[in-house]
Amino acid sequence: MSHSSGSSSRKRGRPSSKSGPTNPLKPPFFKSSPFSDFGSYMTEKNRKLRDQFETDASSSSHGANPAITDGGDSQGIFKGVAIFVDGFTVPSSQELKNYMLKHGGKFVNYFSRHTVSHIICSNLPDSKRKNLRAFSHGLPVVKPDWIVDSIASNTLLSWVPYQLVEHAITETSKQLKLSAFFSEKGISRSHHQGILIQNETSLPDKCKGESTELTLSGADNFSQEKSLESKHIDTNDELKDVKSESEEDCSTSYVAGQSSDHLNRPHSTLTDPNFVENYFKYSRLHFIGTWRNRYRKRFSNFLSGTGSKNNNPNNNTENLRRIVIHIDMDCFFVSVVIRNFPELLDKPVAVCHSNNPKGTAEISSANYPARSYGIKAGMFVRDAKARCPHLTIFPYDFSSYEEVADQFYSILHKHCEKVQAVSCDEAFLEVSLSLNDNPENIAEIIRKEIFETTRCSASAGIGENMLLARLATKSAKPNGQCFIPPDKVNEYLDKLPISALPGVGYNVEEKLRMKEVETCGQLRTISKDILQKDLGSKMGDMLWNYCRGIDHSAVEAVQETKSIGAEVNWGVRFKDSKDSENFLMNLCKEVSLRLHGCGVQGRTITLKVKVRKKGAGEPVKYMGCGDCETISRSLTVPGSINDVASLHRIAKQTFASFHLDVKEVRGVGLKLSRLELANPSHKGIEEGRLELLFSSATRKGKQPVEQSCSTNHSREDAPSGAHPSSSSAVSQGRNISELPPLSHIDLDVVRNLPSEIFLEMNGLYKGELRKILESHKEKVYNSGSIEKKDCRQQDQETSMRMQCELEPSEASCSKSNYCESDLMPGSLSQVDFLILENLPDEVRADILKQLPPHRVENQLPESSKSSLSLGSHSKWFDMLRVRNCLLSEFLLSSATFLTPNINPSCEEWDAMVVNLCEFVKEYVSQKIESDIEELYNCFRLLKRLSTNSSLLLELYDRTLPFLQASVGEHYGGKLHL
DNA sequence: ATCCTCCCCTAC
DNA sequence: TAAGGTAGGGGAGGAT
Question: Which stretches does UniProt call biased (Polar residues) (predicted)?
Answer without folding.
Answer: 251-267
